[in-house]
């Protein structure tokens, strides 16, 4: 991917050298900011009711040809828009005041925008400045700790890994990901990763039913609307930024060293290692982790426009080497937003995002390194040949792994707007999301040991592509008659999602050189190819009205009807209504307060759906490929039979949500407070259940059923105080949410009453459950009371078969004097009670220091990597404090290879609460005087630390453990470690 | 402008026309109701049922648990590996074992595949002889799976339709025998060809002899000696089978589907998808050469006894270290002790199950091992046992001695027995079965059905009244909220 970097830098150089020209005029003015006492660059200056206008230059100066009697409209983000009636005076001095009226902010909602003061729903907005704060390939990670009610877990440090995103608890037992709407295109939340953070204008998170019901079948887990930057008519603007970071492992897991390991094994098998002093001591983690791995993030954009067109073009490069060899990500993104006015009332445009990426797939050696024997050297005496290591040689695993994934994705929206009768706009758009990916893996022939070898080289290759097309037509109406403000939209859309993959593998490539990593280089005898496809479709009708009376009384109602091919004929359609009311108390005549400048109360109810299940879930499929072997020559005879089960009666899952909240502004919005209470009840949840075995769908296989109800409720708040004293400014924000999750029904009409089992550790143990009256995905097993101290205690207590002194003493929960499966109980909840963030910013003149903290509390993690013992493996350091005779410890058990002490129990459940300093940034805005000489219009440099420290009791790499499937709870089965990152960066505008 | 409005309007309504757009059937797969639809489908469906015989999970979740639980084998592998399997050696397994759950559920998956054939193929318009045979094959397989289930778990839910009701409880063993297993096997016996009537391309399909042999095995387990005598006699008189001259010729890969094979599961030395069976891989030599994981190690008592008897069957049954097989020297696993002692006594030596040895160069070739499910030697010993129980001990003796004679070959050992005392013969037949069928999954059930399990396996941990049955998987009890009850003692 080096050519990508070269291309990018060449491109930046070319654009920087291009010149910028200005126009001459009659009127000339200087615009300054009242709060900064500085000229403002880039202020939009338009002549009212014409398309003519310009922007202020670096010194805040504009020149414009205009007539006396015209009105100039000056606008700038964060400042109050000002109108100036022109007289014959051609020299103007204009001072813009900061816009403290946050209420006038425009918020993007589904199929439209609305003034924040008119908003009846719960919507959180995050601006571009916040989004570029975290050095990540995925902009959504920047939302961590920024939006009340939003939980984001960066579960892996692997470059390019997508985080787990949850809004307002766990709504369903299937796919809990919110949807993303990128420039109007409905897609999945992972698509946000194809955007370059610096191309994003704002992110709106829609939380309650009033906001999300317009997305009908897709909105139940929340909607994240991403709006990208567009060009402004007037002067061209060029900006670029470059950020260079280094990352290192933030927290290591302590395992036994060679001596400790041998000592422990000697306790089990006395005399195994007689001379501890001669044993090697290998720290496997140190061998595979490369600290100070670089991350490079470079972006540039050009935007601008003329009277009849605007454009924004952005290009970004993101490169992350990763702290493990062969895990690097290289990514190039391109953004093009353009719009053309074909006539006075018709415009057409295109929003296009593209991504090209190349990812090395790390061979998953973290667990190998944690389990490999520390008394085994990685190399033979020659220092280069890999040695056979019990538990696996992680260095050899990396050496012989060659796997890359490439993807090419483009997402966009081609649209036309037709405005007529002043108040109506008809919009037709064709939205697309094309994704093509390929993965190629080659393993050479090698021998490290009997259990780590590959006798014949092999190659696998897969290619998948998906095409998602949405054809959408909306008609919207906006009008203001006296004190009545109306807005309405109706629409119709069809969506067609198709995907297809082809995969092949072969063995015995004629040469091992990369030039031969193609299926044709293998032996025909070994060649296998598979190919399949899926298609699903949705038809939607939608409508919404907003009505505001005198900016005091607000009303919103919406309805969407969706039909989905994921359901059978009788259950195709679902209806998703919502209604909401709002009252701007502070706009009432009777409201007269010097202290409170803003008070709004709002409430909403509505129903939202979910159809995120595989399209084939309704069918019991019969597939070929289940072949038999017969005949003297043992030939394959083709067979076909059931492949799992299906449910023809599947129907829509519904989430009913009620929300009440208020917004408060105090002392001209120095202090703003927003608070919401939500209650969500999800019914007919589409849940994959492992039904009774006798149904015959096979071991460990599931069928979808509409068979559960879940409620989530909680309180969200977001408060911010900001002020400045002379050159010194500061702000403090606190946000958080409580989550109370409860399963109220599982298995109605299905036979599997009240229980869902998940959390397979991979060794046959399944440690998670969901059942009525409890949160989703809690841990289930024996509760440890202590350690048996002597034989008498074993004999006098209920115990598992064969337990001895030094073994874990499990509690006889039902008190029947016998310890068995009935004594298992709830041993931890994986959903936090409380998710929070707080941030602080202090500034002096052009220097600002900001800190973002983020955390959660009340959740537990099952330390699965420590519980799996398939052979004699190294142990985590905790086991060094083993039981060593009566009275030695009541916490840890005697040295054991496996058995009763490794049953699912509270021994492996750890507190997952944490508080993390997510980012700390010191920013210096270079003063204008210096900049002007360099023809810059604005520039800042910064240093930043990310994941600087984490306060937690959890013993793993990171407490941010989440599961894509909530039923499994939060089990740590070994992850790519989270890293601590230090960055320096530069942003500049021309 | 008007044009644009017209175009947009047309587009809107053109796209909105139908629910057809919302009907998206699965790609590259059929659904129930559309399969099996014709004669070709019927063949595919029955082959799909045979397919499951090669899966890992149909075999007690991947490991030969019956052998581990009996006295002829121990867990094996190295001491640290497969601790989840070790529980069966000591009878400490609980209802939570993943292997038991996998096995139980896969039996029902297999039954559903046979139910698809049994319920749907009769409706197909096709050549009657083939149709009858396919249904009979499916019924043989269904009985095979149910016999495994009721022997292992006792009363279990009885399913004979494609989509089982969701509220089933346990059906008694007697009912399942009388309503499914016996009628299925009687149908199979009446309608399946004898082995020689199949063409060479169909070798491996269920035969009349296999159905008789399986029914005899089931009847023997439940003590119906009259039926066993009759069924085994019919197999013997069919002249379809004969003992191999040399015991060592029974198991080698070159002699798959030999004259002694009444029913075996054919497999190719390939991955499962390409026709392989991992059964031998779990038991294959661990270390050098790397042919598998080394589980299910012949027990030291078995080796000791057979050495004492100078039993020539020992060498073809057990791979000892430094033995040379098919030109390969067996060195074994470095992490496994060559000899394990307890209190100075040898309790285990590193050795492997030779009955699953498969020549070749890598672990994959071991997937080609054909599991011998019913051997003609078993027909003969079952016949001998039934005759003895039915008061025909003198006749029984001649059949028992057929096995002794073949076992001894040209060596001066294992002399013919002469006693015709019924009780003595009963003991001798059981003992003969131990050595003849060592590590073939029969010993544990022989001990259970003859009520000797406690006496012989008690020291290993067997508890009478409990370990005759496996526990119903805990998930099955949990999901059915106790409607499916647990077996005693678990």
From TrEMBL, chain B:
CDD domains according to UniProt: SusD (cd08977)
DNA-binding found in the keyword field: no
SUPFAM superfamilies, per the entry: TPR-like
Coiled coil (residue ranges): none
Broad class of where this protein is predominantly found: membrane
GO CC annotation terms, alphabetical: cell outer membrane
Keywords attached to this entry: Cell outer membrane, Membrane, Signal
Domain RagB/SusD: start-end pairs: 260-454
Signal peptide feature range: 1-18
Classification via PROSITE patterns: PROKAR_LIPOPROTEIN
Domain SusD-like N-terminal stretches: 98-220
Similarity field: Belongs to the SusD family.
Protein name (database record): Membrane protein
